[in-house]
Amino acid sequence: MSIERLTELVRDRQPCVVLTGAGVSTESGVPDFRSREGIWAQYDPMEYATIDAFLADPVKVWDFYGKRLHLLRDAEPNDGHRALAELEERGWVRAVITQNVDRLHERAGSRALVEVHGSIRTSSCLDCGAVVPFDEVVRRLENASAPMCTCGRILKPDVVMFGELLAEAAIARASQLAAEARLMLVVGSTLEVYPVAGLPLETLATGGSLAIVNRGSTPFDDRAALTIDGGAGETLRALAVSLPARR
């Protein structure tokens, strides 16, 4: 019944905008952040994920990010990523707003993509402004503890660290999409990290509806038209099977 109800919501409440979090990528072998087995159970975010930590000891921070890059180099999009790309192509999903930095939505084929927390697609030099692509950063890490810019400074991954502001254009676009959505479909997010966790409020404030697919509860469950406690891949694949191309 849940898939039938979700299909009905997506079909009847257009445009649909999707907001994804770490839970959409765990099925690709990418650890989440806040579960007992998550990344922050092993690494203190105040030591490895703040801009102050990077500026104070970039080599230490790259001990964390270097492991993530090697993991993400081998990770592949899962059925959840692919299903969202298919739903976008068929006209059912207007855009995907993601908290993830892992490139998997893009690699699955999503094109209307807003990466509010940046992406490990590139790393940049804070001195000369050089931008270095993912594969080259991984290559430079093979022979060094941190990837160096040609000017001599250690590169910074182009993700939003704690203590940094979100990219103005990205959060503005996400806010616009949320306000214009008649349905926001949240997938794999605990909706605890602001300001992104506030986007469902913008949809609700303009008369839109909220549907949530997540393993475990969220603070927005009692305001959602539908909640599904389940995996992203199986749920989104079933949704894609139920929705052919729009006419």
Largest sheet: 6 strands, parallel
Count all strands and give the number.
9
**Radius of gyration, taken over Cα atoms and rounded to an integer in Å:** 18 Å
Give the overall form. Answer: elongated
The total count of helices amounts to 10
Using the coordinates above, name the CATH class of the largest domain.
Alpha Beta
- The chain-level mean pLDDT equals 92
Brief rundown of the structure:
The protein is of the alpha/beta class and 247 residues long. It has helices spanning 2-12, 45-48, 51-56, 58-74, 79-89, 104-108, 134-141, 168-180, 199-205, 232-242; strands spanning 16-20, 95-98, 113-115, 118-124, 131-133, 156-159, 183-187, 209-213, 226-228.
Topology:
Blueprint: H1 2-12, E1 16-20, H2 45-48, H3 51-56, H4 58-74, H5 79-89, E2 95-98, H6 104-108, E3 113-115, E4 118-124, E5 131-133, H7 134-141, E6 156-159, H8 168-180, E7 183-187, H9 199-205, E8 209-213, E9 226-228, H10 232-242
Parallel strand pairs: 1-2, 1-7, 2-3, 7-8, 8-9
Antiparallel strand pairs: 4-5, 4-6
Describe this structure in words.
This protein has ten helices and nine strands. Strands 3-2-1-7-8-9 form a six-stranded parallel beta sheet, sandwiched between helices. Strands 5-4-6 form a three-stranded antiparallel beta sheet. The chain is α/β, with parallel strands linked by helices and 247 residues long. It folds into two domains: 1-30 and 78-117 and 165-247, Rossmann fold (3-Layer(aba) Sandwich); 33-74 and 120-159, SIR2/SIRT2 'Small Domain' (2-Layer Sandwich).
